Amino acid sequence: MSQPEPNVDELVKSIAEETDTPTETVSKLYADIVAVYRQDARVFDYVPLFAAKKVRDQLRGSSNRRH
């Protein structure tokens, strides 16, 4: 049984709010990461979940380095 696809717009908005990052930046980063993950994936069910986690981690890491 496959996982339902998340609503990308809601996901991007949520990450943008959590990380205080413009939605355009989050959207581009998310799309780039999903594309990379899909290239090598054999199972696609969790690609959106892993991509969202990586985006959050990258944006939180970059905000921590600014302080």
Q: What is the overall silhouette?
A: globular
Number of DSSP helical runs = 3
What is the CA-CA span between the terminal residues? 44 Å
Order of helices and strands: HHH
Largest sheet: none
Total number of β-strand segments? Answer: 0
Helix content: over 70%
Mean of all residue-level pLDDT scores: 88
Rg over C-alpha atoms, rounded to the nearest angstrom: 12 Å
- Given as residue ranges, the uncertain stretches (5+ residues, pLDDT < 50) are none
InterPro entries: DUF3562
Pfam families: DUF3562 (PF12085)
Protein name: DUF3562 domain-containing protein
Describe the structure.
It is built from 3 helices and no strands. It is mainly alpha-helical. The chain has one domain.
Helices, strands, pairings?
Blueprint: H1 8-19, H2 23-40, H3 47-66
Helix pairs in contact: 1-2, 1-3, 2-3
Write a brief structural summary:
This is DUF3562 domain-containing protein. With 67 residues, the protein is mostly helical.
Name the descriptors.
3 helices, mainly alpha, 67 residues
